[in-house]
Amino acid sequence: MNRVIERTMIVPNMHLLTLEAPEIARKIQPGQFVIVRANDEGERIPLSVADWDIEKGTITIIFMEVGASTGALAGLAAGDSVATCVGPLGNATTIGRFGTVMCVGGCYGIGSIYPVARELWYAGNEIIMVLEARSSYLIYWADRFVHRAAKIFTITRDGSLGMKGHITRLTDVIHSLPKPPDRIIVNGCTYLMAHASEVTKNLGIPTIVNLNPIMIDGTGMCGVCRVTVGGTTKFACVDGPEFDGHEVDWKEFLARRKQYTNEETSYFRHSDPKPIIHREGKCHS
Amino acid sequence: MSEEKQGKLDLNRHDMPKQSPEMRRHNFNEVALGYTQELAVAEAKRCLQCKKPKCRTGCPVEIDIPDFISYIVKGDFRSGIKKLKEKNCLPAVCGRVCPQESQCESQCILKNKGAEVAIGRLERFLADWEAAQGEVDVPPKAARTGKKVAVVGSGPAGITVAGDLILLGHDVTIFEALHKAGGVLTYGIPEFRLPKAIVAREVEYVKKLGVRVITDYVVGKTRSIDELLKEFDAVFIGTGAGLPWFMNIPGENLNGVYSANEYLTRMNLMQGYRFPMSSTPIRKHAKVAVVGGGNVAMDSARTALRMGADEVRIIYRRSHAELPARAEESENAEEEGVIFNMLTLPVQYIGDENGWLREIECLKMELGEPDASGRPRPVEMPNSNFRLEMDAVVCAIGNSPNPLVPSTTPGLETTRRGTLVADAETGKTTRDRVWAGGDIVTGAATVILAMGAGRKAARSIHEFLTTGKQ
Questions:
Q1: Which of A43, A222, A223 sits opposite B279 (nearest CB)?
Q2: Does the CA dihedral A236-A242-A243-A248 come out positive or negative?
Q3: Closest chain B C-alpha to A222 CA, distance in angstroms
């Protein structure tokens, strides 16, 4: 049981969840994740950690509400608790002095790339941020990057902020720089990571992605998170979650991510009483 | 011993009542229903009370078998369970999942006549009788020593170590990575073979003795062994064999291909069969193949049937005679309608355009000369390829030890197989104040062997805590 300190919707459908988890806060490093279970009937879902506070003993997660399990988390309020919060799991981001590192974040990944950018900046790298969203109103935390990033680019699909278009505009971003970055790290949805990797592969820039497959235990036991990287099967939970984006079999990864989409969203489609009570006043039924 | 008994051997081994195959393949309730008191007494009376009981030598924890059986004959079940618990702290579990046919019962003198005493069923009877009485007796605890022990993993090895050391007066804390204690008893073995209420009862029992159980705590991640050693005087590692093997054949990452761990965990730990009341989904597949021939394979196949599959197959590369599963389990599976494709090896999985499994390509095998394991080696028959249309495959070919703890603990030596190096008699590892036992040391084995290892380690840890000698 971990107490909820805060749960706020920061942009539409995107939530910030701060949990009391002193031991995790003390141990966690950028790139790692936790597994959370909202209640006793809850599914175990892996979530990237976007920030932590060792003194307060808290961790902060940014997540998008996409189905029943994230729906249950979105219904939490300060003072409630989650049944499980276990971690930190997975390996930490490799931090080194690479030179110029471009950090690309989209969706929940704008949150989870933040500690990565922060740590890389501490290590003496020049940081270039790229934030991607469908529209300007879905961008959050941009202010957090201001002090550390040498440059912040924004790509929105409707062009309401920064460049207009998809993540493939990353090519233009890179070409606008005096020289290409030495390393690129991408956090976000599968499309974002897959397409960003495709772009950077053509440009020959090392690219690290933080994969987010389905998991159950998160400690190597179930094998549901397996992913083909460079022709071999890896378990994202213990071998990752970070991998070379140019080596990931994205087609397979995407198919595996969708295994339970039908079940996950079925609760939005029927009108039976739901075990989850929303407090935001949204209606999905 | 009466003359009558010596003169007339009772060779009528009493069957245990079971749910009928037609009925049980549609529910998740326990298959075997257990002896009634009458049946238990009748079966107990068949024990010859040998002067030199060989059954005891077949038991990894040396339970005083004739003695506990003699109490059943007298109808003194309370003394019987007490006797049993002197050596086995998980009788309700062992009475159900121990391979008695290759242990105690294989040594029974009546085995020669084909009518060995049903020791396992009697063990189960006593444990269930005790549970039905409500309050379980708590044995007296030694005075507190002030020494602290951390137990990593709450499976059979961990529970045994914890139960033994708490009675000796030490302060014991169990750390469990998952949200429910019990290890493989909770996530792996299905409800119809080992009801989760029984596992919960055993965990409650050690808690009642005073053991602290901390769930959702991954040792190696949340805290390392070295950090635990700062707070605890001794550490026991019982993290089990939880890293699933795959065959490394094409198509293994298609949707619909599961490790047995995933399939069973979704069902047992996460209660997937209750979806959407529980929130972890599990797919209902019409045609399911299970690769492997052990107990885990049988558990997976029988689970698939209960989930409503029309066709469930066991695909095993050797023949019926070599199936590693308990005879009882493969018979149960067969009765329930599982199809056995023996001498068959999957060579690739073929998917549809959306990445879902559609077909399995297999090869026919024949048995050759015995291999290192003593079993006949399966040899591929050239050009014998054939395909089976399937929606799902559960890969149940075994597990290696989980590397999380070894990989984060400097100085903790492992073997080539990834198991921890530990003394066979004491469980002592290559690190000071660190012991280990169960599947993490032996590789995937049985509940009772893990318990036996836990018991030996507890003895050694106690000696260290009281004398300082390691």
A1: A43
A2: positive
A3: 4
pLDDT over 70 percentage in chain B: 99
Q: Which residue has the higher pLDDT, B273 or B28?
A: B28
Q: What ipTM was reported for this prediction?
A: 0.89
Determine the pLDDT at residue A267.
63
pLDDT band at residue B151, thresholds of 50, 70 and 90?
A: very high
Asked whether the beta carbons of residue A216 and residue B275 sit closer than 8 angstroms, the reply is no
Instruction: Confirm or reject contact between A37 and chain B (CB < 8 A).
Output: yes
With CB atoms and an 8 Å threshold, state whether A223 touches B216.
no
Nearest by CB to residue B266, choosing from A216, A252, A255, is: A216
CB half-sphere exposure, B466, CA atoms < 13 A: 14
Name every residue in B having a CB less than 8 A away from some CB of A: 177-179, 187, 215-218, 221-223, 242-244, 246, 248, 252-255, 258-259, 261-262, 265-266, 269-271, 275-281, 283, 354-356, 402-404
Q: Please give the Cα distance from A257 to A42 (Å, whole number).
A: 19
